[in-house]
Amino acid sequence: MRMGHFGLGTLLALIILIATTEAVVAVNTNTKDMATDSRAIPR
């Protein structure tokens, strides 16, 4: 039970982390030029 809850929490945290990263990349792409920001993922 505890292990299953921990796994679910980790999965949820991972999804939130990915969503946050996507949002940051989107903001960086809209704010700066993609050529300037090397971390921007080309879509």
Task: Explain the overall architecture.
The chain has 43 residues and is mostly helical. The chain has one helix and no strands. The model has no long low-confidence stretch (mean pLDDT 77).
List the helices and strands and how they pair.
Layout lengths: L1 H30 L12
Number of strands: 0
The fraction of residues assigned to DSSP E strands is under 5%
Q: What average pLDDT do the residues reach?
A: 77
Distance between the termini: 40 Å
Helix content: 55-70%
Regions with pLDDT < 50 over 5+ consecutive residues? none
Largest sheet: none
Query: Overall 3D geometry?
Result: rod-shaped
Q: What is the compact description of this entry?
A:
The protein is mostly helical. It contains one helix and no strands.
Short descriptors:
about 45 residues, mainly alpha
